[in-house]
Amino acid sequence: MPERNEIAVAAAEALERSAPLLGSLPVVVGFDGFVDSIIHAVDKRLTQAPDGYTPFRTIEQFSARVAAAAGKSANIELVVKEDRFGGNGPLMAGALGRVGAKVTYIGAVGTEANPRELHPIYDGFAGACARVFPVAPPAHTDALEFDDGKIMLGRPKNVQAIDWRSLGSDLGREKLIAAFRESALIGIVNWVMMPGVESIWEGLRTEVFADRRAESRRVFLDLADPTRRADADVRDAVGRIADLDRAVPVTLGLNLSEAQRVASVLGLDVLRVDSGPELARSVGEGARAIRERTGVDCVVIHPREGAGAASAGGSVAWFDGPFVENPKLSTGAGDHFNAGFALGQLLGMNLGCCLATGCATSGVYVRDAQSPTGERLAAFLRGLPEPERA
């Protein structure tokens, strides 16, 4: 089996070889859009200066303070570090555009006054895309960041009305279908907050790719934390995804907790391990079991320590990611992994190199607090850091 660094270098070489081609491969991503407020929750206020505080370092510390308020009350100060554009779709699309893909974004990136006019917070994002079509104003997320993860408090009202019918009305049905048919990759994310996403899957299946399976195209789907949805909803969604795969090859991207939820709903006794030396084997077995049960072309699972995947050809792979103890930014790390993995698939990389590209895209992002260029990503893969913690 190739060594980790050999796989990473092979991915870098594939990326460099394909750089001239990348801009000619159309990508469509949608359909959400959020304004993310990056927030620290204050543990202790030391002075009244804006930065005169110590934040809660871990989710456990924060949750203990919240739990202690049961039957009483609590007032926890929140410090907004910055507002930035967000949403699973824009983060994935921006990362693909930054690395050189020809991205069309369709989604909730408009203004409140005019949903067809680009919100100013998305100006930089739009510069990384070939085309952007606003169809609604963005929703809002308060992202509480900690050293060991994040808590996302979403207000998704603005994205919940987007569906296949509304997209056809906003863009014109022929224009919408043409954009999908011309694309080499379609990314559809945030099913959990967008009930209309299922109608978009169905539109792809029955109107865009109805004649025969579009083997040369690929759809990347991310459910985005299905814990709040009922088992029946998750089971129905997985069935619809399997139906879509009969029309076009589908990759289902899941973080570890999402994969555990999907496995549980499907009745699969897998993914019992959350960390440690057995994690790679557990994730690989889990990806294979979910893929075999659903019948989709590829399932990829990305815990913080790395990522594993299983594909229809029988391949199963794991890649140790470049985990960093103290990231500059963690909100959006999963979306950047998705972008990197989908990029690898777009360029025809093997499963191991796709995993390496996904882990590296996320790894650069959390270190630099911005999406990597193609040159930065290739250089990072060539000198891939060892994980800071096993």
Cα separation of the termini: 20 Å
Give the second-level CATH assignment, the architecture: 3-Layer(aba) Sandwich
Number of domains: 1
> What is the name of the CATH topology?
UDP-N-acetylmuramoyl-L-alanine:D-glutamate ligase
Give the overall pLDDT as a whole number: 95
Strand order of the largest sheet: 6-5-1-9-10-11-12-13-14
What is the CATH H-level superfamily?
Ribokinase
DSSP strand tally: 14
Q: Secondary-structure element sequence?
A: HEEEHEHEHEEEHHEHEHEHHEEEHHH
Task: Give an overview of the whole structure.
With 390 residues, the protein is an alpha/beta fold. The protein has one domain (4-39, 82-382): UDP-N-acetylmuramoyl-L-alanine:D-glutamate ligase, CATH 3.40.1190.20. The protein has helices at 4-22, 59-68, 88-99, 123-128, 164-171, 173-182, 197-208, 231-245, 256-265, 279-294, 333-346, 351-368, 374-382; strands spanning 26-31, 34-45, 53-55, 78-86, 102-107, 131-134, 139-146, 149-155, 185-189, 218-222, 250-254, 298-301, 306-311, 316-320. The protein has a 9-stranded mixed beta sheet with strand order 6-5-1-9-10-11-12-13-14, sandwiched between helices. Strands 2, 3, 4, 7 and 8 form a 5-stranded mixed beta sheet that branches. It is globular, with a radius of gyration of 20 Å. The model has no long low-confidence stretch (mean pLDDT 95).
